[in-house]
Design goal:
This protein has one domain (2-199): Tetracycline Repressor, domain 2 (Orthogonal Bundle). It is an all-alpha fold. The chain has ten helices and no strands. It is 80% helix and 0% strand. Helix 6 crosses helix 8 and helix 7 (110-137) crosses helix 8. The model has no long low-confidence stretch (mean pLDDT 90). It starts with a helix and ends with a helix. InterPro entries: Homeodomain-like_sf, HTH-type_Tx_Regulator, HTH_TetR.
Amino acid sequence: MMVFAFMREEILEKAGELFFKIGYKSVTMDDIASEMGISKKTIYKFFKNKEVLIEESVNLMHEACHQVIDTITSQGHNPIKENFEIKKMFKEMFQNADTSPIYQLKKYYPKIYDRVMTKEMVVFHDCIKSNIERGIEQGFYRDNIDINNTVKFYFALVFYIHENMPMNEVQIIEIQALEYHTRAIATNKGIDELNKHLNN
């Protein structure tokens, strides 16, 4: 049973790596089997088709992202520094991707994309809402903002970037989006903290 679980996990990790680097559409089951030195039949023992493998690998990737975010948010950074630390983490995770994974899912596997986005909206909303609430408490953000609408605005902006921009532009534009979002809600104290991170 443990060998079974280990092989399944190995396939998921290798498939996720290839999907991430080359693209969900371009990578075939034959490519995955060849990279792992196993037969395609072995893959089908664990995953009935490519779509199932894609969705499970996407879920695995998002779980890993959320674990890293949880680690960062538990370190006690002020809310503005926390956002920059999360962006830094995503830059490192996505630096080997040729095209945006979100763009690929939306274009080629829209049903998987819709399910992923439904889950991401909940996680993103909770994460950004918590960040804003702490920012208000600590004096970095204004206390007269509409928190729920601010979260929706930022969510729409971030995911528009990932859905439509070339991957080599995403990281730069994301920092600009973070600056735009922060300046819209920051106090003078928050602006000072923002400028410190932008200058670094």
